[in-house]
Specification:
3 domains, ATPase_P-typ_cyto_dom_N, Calcium-transporting ATPase, transmembrane domain, alpha+beta, 15 strands, four-stranded mixed beta sheet, Calcium-transporting ATPase, cytoplasmic domain N, Rossmann fold
């Protein structure tokens, strides 16, 4: 919960450890889901921000823009309340995803004139225009040369990751309107339009996303927040839904809910998933090392000497310590950023790798050699009695097991002596 992620299915924690691909919904997850105007072109000239105040276009053109759009009016110092009272809407053409535009037909109450306004994708709207207003408020014909310049402006906005929207208008004669009461078809005029301006809007990226994506490298799963994302969330190996803007259907179909709708939380989920998988490997390596060593020591000693160096009670005590304190320490290690620099583990990869088998055998042989040396030659080498030697054999085995987890913190390291010096120092200091 501290990382703003609520796990609904426990198996998802393990699955995140070997996830290698992320399919994410852009809006609201990577971005703030807040569209903001960052660029405006009036004719072929940009409207620039000069000392915190926007340069305004011609007043007549500005009035036309105010009539046709209510987008980002606060920052452009536009008030729409008075405008709404001064005009009456005759007909509205809702946004069409195929045509990529929407229109409105309105009548000015002051002079009873009728204007048709269109706004939408700049490429589509530009084809409907025959004239445009320049920066001085003068109407000019939209010839091929001007058309190429506008297309260049649109391409420049697209290159800057901006969505370019065009605003146009045309005066409509009374006889072209039809019946306002709905008795005849009323349409918003679609040809001979005059271009008012171009706007570039941007859904700003969350500030945490850049570092999060760099840390993920090839990671994660599927994210979504809408009802239409539910099938993908359900079919994915790990489905991550958004807790704030996500629908209930999306949350029910997901395995993990990102409470803060922040992409950086997805990185934390991946990191903890890899940590869980890594801790399981550490626990298995530790268990196998100790059990193989104990079994081999008792078997060889029974064959050569005819007695067991470790009694059943002693082995039970060792396993009690090993299964609780040692294993608990390995299984609860916290996730580190180093896990994000390692490649994700695939589903088909073995849980016990070749490096782990090498470490298990090497560390087990080390314990076997030390214990059997004391068991077979301890009395003569150290000059002690048999009872003291048996005690020494058991305590030596316990102490070897005690500092064994320290080198195991790096299970895929190719040196079994990594951190061994630190382990010995800690062990001696405890004595």
């Amino acid at each position: 919960m501290a990382d703003k992620a609520m796990v609904r299915k426990l198996s998802a924690c393990e699955a995140m450890g070997f996830a290698t691909t992320i399919c994410t919904d852009n809006t609201g997850t990577l971005t703030l889901n807040q569209m903001k105007v960052t660029m405006f072109w009036h004719g072929l000239e940009p409207v620039e921000d000069i000392q915190g105040a926007y340069s305004k276009p011609d007043p007549f053109v500005l009035q036309l823009i105010q009539e046709g759009v209510a987008l980002n009016t606060t920052e452009l110092n536009m008030e729409t309340e008075n405008l709404t009272r001064s005009c009456s809407i005759i007909h509205v053409e809702t946004f069409n995803s195929k045509k990529k535009r929407s229109g409105v037909l309105l009548r000015r109450n002051a002079d009873n004139t009728i204007n048709a306004h269109w706004k939408g994708g700049a490429e589509m709207i530009l084809k409907m225009c025959s004239r445009y207003y320049d920066a001085s408020g003068i109407v000019k014909n939209l010839d091929s040369d001007s058309m190429m310049k506008f297309e260049h402006i649109i391409q420049g906005m697209a290159a800057s990751s901006l969505r370019c929207i065009a605003f146009t208008y045309v005066e409509v004669a009374e006889e072209e309107v039809g019946d306002e009461e709905g008795k005849t078809m009323v349409k918003v005029k679609e040809n001979g339009l005059t271009l008012l301006g171009l706007v570039g809007i941007k859904d700003s990226c969350r500030p945490e996303v850049k570092k999060a994506v760099e840390a993920c490298q090839h990671a994660v799963a599927v994210t979504g927040d809408g009802t239409n994302d539910a099938p993908a969330l359900k079919e994915a190996d790990i489905g991550l839904s958004m807790g704030i803007q996500g629908t209930e259907v999306a949350k029910e179909s997901s395995d993990i809910v990102i409470l803060g709708d922040n992409f950086a939380s997805v990185v934390s989920v991946v990191k903890w998933g890899r940590c869980s998988y890594n801790n399981i490997q550490k626990f298995i390596q530790f268990q196998l090392t100790v059990n193989i060593a104990a079994l081999a020591i008792n078997f060889v000693a029974a064959v050569l000497v005819g007695k067991l160096p470790h009694s059943a009670v002693q082995l039970l005590w060792v396993n009690l310590i090993m299964d609780t304190l040692g294993a608990l320490a390995l299984a609860t290690e916290k996730a580190t950023i180093e896990l994000m620099y390692k490649p994700a583990v695939g589903r088909t990869n073995p849980l016990i790798t070749n490096v782990m088998w090498r470490n298990i055998l090497a560390q087990a042989l080390y314990q076997i050699a030390v214990s059997l040396t004391l068991q077979l030659r301890g009395e003569s080498l150290l000059g002690v009695t048999q009872g003291v030697n048996d005690t020494l054999v058991f305590h030596t085995f316990v102490w070897v097991v005690k500092f064994l987890p320290q080198p195991l913190t790096q299970i895929n390291h190719y040196s079994i002596f990594t951190k061994l010096y630190v382990s010995c120092v800690k062990t001696i200091s405890k004595i």
